Amino acid sequence: MTTAPSFPAARAAGCPFDPPPAIRSLQEETPLARVRLWDDSTPWLVTRYADQRKLLSDPRVSADITRPGYPSPTPLRGGAISFILMDDPEHARLRRMVTAPFTIKRVEAMRPGVQEIVDDLIDEMLAGPNPADLVTAFALPVPSLVICQLLGVPYADHDFFQDKSNVLINRETGPEAKAAAGAALSEYLDELIGEKLEKPGEDLLSGLTERIRTGELTRQEAAQMGVLMLIAGHETTANMITLGTLALLEHSDQLALLRETDDPKLVASAVEELLRYLHITHNGRRRVAVEDIEIAGQVIRAGEGIILANDIGNRDPDVFPDPDRLDLRRDSRRHVAFGFGVHQCLGQPLARMELQVVYSTLYRRVPTLRLATELSEIKFKHDGSVYGVYELPVTW
Ligand code: HEM
């Protein structure tokens, strides 16, 4: 057991888009292997796509962070961040209350507004200093503005909530700092909900206050759901915008495809392929077995932790031939970048639409967009639960 390799593992120098080589070897040789975490616990790491999907849809597998054996990515365990870390029926009860705004129909109705946000931000970037940091000038504001509008959170507070969510999703920050950031965000959402209880608007949080009034939901549950959606709604998409842009700048033939097309099907396929190829939620889905489970010739015992490494799952050659090649024309719709099973990403229609608008607009409107530094100078978020870059200096 002491020989279990450390997880998360390091990526290879010079290969910022590829999963760590140690994890790839496990996929080839030991698809169900013990790995060692920060607390010396040794959960199972599942590296093959088919096993991952089986386990993620198995009711004997729990997402409840409070269960003994749960493979926590950091020392902070308490204070479940809403339904993402709960099991059914509680998970389903809460998730059901917020599914309506994320249906494809409702999300499509938001597309013209998102296009306007994207166009305005590009106008501002082009009128501002050159070079610019694509993260602050464009990639963070797009999803932050969108999720703020949808939830009914004032965008003017973005420095506050972006700062707190950065602390929460960074693996290296200590438990005290994390607890303080979580408490500050919960308090902030609780105050907002208080205001909306008095004066409801048309937004998602106001919709939740109606359920507080009818007794279906507590104010604390509503605040926790708000925190979850605020963080999930901007961090992930922002990193997909910057890392996606960087990957395209490094694959100029693929960038040219996007720059020259006005075919929405190709744009949609490019979004799926970039989601597959980059897989930004790179620390794996965390679960714990509640019963013994036989899989891949092994038995996972009740109470043992399980990590589904979906990043390498998206590079499984049994499902995606030549998996390390970025190929915007391939059909990658079966990827697991949004997870799988009951916890599959609630915001995926929104994320897809935002990325389609961004990828179909940015490179066409700024055809000379290029890096203003060397790839080797770029600082990657190896320490975060969401992968990406801290800054992306670009010029045009
Ligand atoms: C490219 C962008 C995004 C990526 C890659 C992504 C990825 C994921 C993944 C992998 C999960 C599954 C977690 C698990 O099984 O443990 C998830 C869940 C979730 N995501 Fe996203 N996400 C993105 C955007 C969004 C957006 C825009 C929202 C909007 C609010 C959102 C809200 C959520 C929520 C609420 C859950 C929990 C679902 C549940 O537990 O039932 N995500 N996301």
Automatic annotation (TrEMBL):
Specify the domain of life of the species encoding this protein.
Bacteria
Instruction: Decide whether keyword RNA-binding is in the record.
Output: no
Q: Which CDD domains match?
A: CYP105-like (cd11030)
Q: Which InterPro entries match?
A: Cyt_P450, Cyt_P450_B, Cyt_P450_CS, Cyt_P450_sf
Its annotated pathway reads: Antibiotic biosynthesis; vancomycin biosynthesis
Query: Which keywords has UniProt assigned to this entry?
Result: Heme, Iron, Metal-binding, Monooxygenase, Oxidoreductase
Q: Listed GO molecular functions?
A: heme binding; iron ion binding; monooxygenase activity; oxidoreductase activity, acting on paired donors, with incorporation or reduction of molecular oxygen
Family annotation (Pfam families): p450
Q: Where is this region: Disordered?
A: 1-20
**Which function does this protein serve?**
Involved in the coupling of aromatic side chains of the heptapeptide of vancomycin.
Tell me the protein family, please: Belongs to the cytochrome P450 family.
Q: What is this protein called?
A: Cytochrome P450
Which species is this UniProt entry from?
Amycolatopsis decaplanina DSM 44594
What does the record give as the organism's lineage?
Bacteria, Bacillati, Actinomycetota, Actinomycetes, Pseudonocardiales
